[in-house]
Amino acid sequence: MSYGRIEALRQVSLHVHEGEIVALLGANGAGKTTTLRAISGLIKPQQGDILFDGSSLLASPAHRIVGQGIAQCPEGRRVFPTLTVEENLRLGAYLHRKDKEWVQEGQGKVWELFPRLHERRFQLAGTLSGGEQQMLAIARALMARPRLLLLDEPSLGLAPLLVQEIFRTIRAINAQGVTILLVEQNARLALKIAHRAYVLATGRVAVSGDAADLANDEKLRKAYLGAAPACS
Amino acid sequence: MELFLEQLVNGLTVGSVYSLVALGYTMVYGVMRLINFAHGELFMLGSYFGFTLLVSTNIGALGAGWGLIVIVLMAAGAMALLGILVERVAYAPLRESGRLAPVVSALGVSIFLQNAAMLIWGSRYRAYPVWAALDRRWQVGGVHITLMQVIILGVSIVLMLLLYFIIQRTTLGAAIRATAIDQDTARLMGIDVNAIIRFIFIIGPALGAVAGVMVGLYYRQIHFTMGWTYSLKAFTAAIMGGIGNIPGAMVGGMLLGILEMLGAGYISAAWKDVFVFIILIALLILRPTGLLGERVAEKV
Hints:
The complex is a heterodimer.
Chain A: E1 2-3, E2 6-7, E3 21-26, H1 32-39, E4 51-52, E5 55-56, H2 62-65, E6 70-73, H3 85-92, H4 100-113, H5 115-119, H6 130-142, E7 148-152, H7 160-175, E8 179-183, H8 187-193, E9 196-201, E10 204-210, H9 211-216, H10 218-225
Parallel strand pairs in A: 3-8, 3-9, 6-7, 7-8
Antiparallel strand pairs in A: 1-2, 4-5, 9-10
Helix pairs in contact in A: 3-6
Chain B: H1 2-32, H2 39-56, H3 64-91, H4 100-121, E1 126-127, E2 137-140, E3 143-146, H5 147-169, H6 171-181, H7 183-188, H8 193-219, E4 221-222, H9 226-241, H10 246-266, H11 272-286
Antiparallel strand pairs in B: 1-4, 2-3
């Protein structure tokens, strides 16, 4: 697959089984975000295929892929800053906008998961703190009630305590039956909550396996993940 | 004082026309970052379309009330269709080609439509047929107000309130604002960005056509170059309010109309266009983000 004119991914083959948390790790520029953008249909691979439930996603434009049960919480949160928290959430359920009850119910669940968002529901998203924006971005993706949730760097730029909270939430979301593909730079934490993991290096899958095994593999940590401290 | 009030009324009248046209510019810019130079031509064609309906059909016989409603609606519908067509033919194929190509394409569409209008309706001024009922005028505290002025102001304000409601209060409006901020993330929500763009190209030209018909009935003559003149002023109005900012375009248009007419009344009518463009240049130098200020940071 190439991104613009530069080939960014080659022979990346990964599988996510229902109910799993799968971590996608690797250094900057390894192709993690590109992989997620391809799954969501924002870019289309030149070769290869992306299957969901056995059928190809390549023919669907990005705005249809959400409807098939794949939601993405993009890198850098990307909440709509001049829209209120509630408007952001309503857009998360955009495809179901005619079904008021469905949207209300989804909002109810989100308030349970993130009570702080409920307090701020009439505030502009741009006025929230970084952690709150991350919660909003995740909540917005959940409003579509995805079966597969793609999370791109949810810990980016957050204080360690907040990162812990976000990861607890991710686990809770998974416990409710949502499959998760998690892109992270914070490998230690990601491997702690993931079932399996793939490590990308320069556009290819370098290593894959059980998260627990990878977490204990010193050589791997040094080679691909950097021996970085846990939270940063 | 009388001169001031008189020019204020005149200014609000032309100002609301500028506002209606400016909305088309600002909405397209907000969503696509494109200055749609063809927009002024759609305003002009809307005016000519209404002219043809008045001259060649029996709609005029419906009387000033129903006749006006029917003509305005038909012109708005026709320009909405043409707007979609222009978008499909001239802009949609260039969606991935950077920002300069669509601007050049827009200039091309503008020249094409202007010349088409000249070939169809001729290069001379055409007299707009006007119902006698629209000639009514009142004198309020020494100020003359015509029925047509009241209609222009009333119709414009109702349409702008309606648009404001759609943009600010509905989910569709939230989707439009979201698309203007970040198209990729909007797609991730399931928003069909192309459908939003089509919607913008229905609303903008329809509002322009309403303005075009009303300008014809107000000044009673139209010319195939009027799109250019009005669009430059509407564009100035859009910049005044901060381009991409919908309430800004509404306020900017009104303000520009008032300044233009006060300049015409107190200084010299022949120089009124000069005032407008001095304002444009001054704004671009002193406050390029517009009077209503910068939009809150787009990316956090």
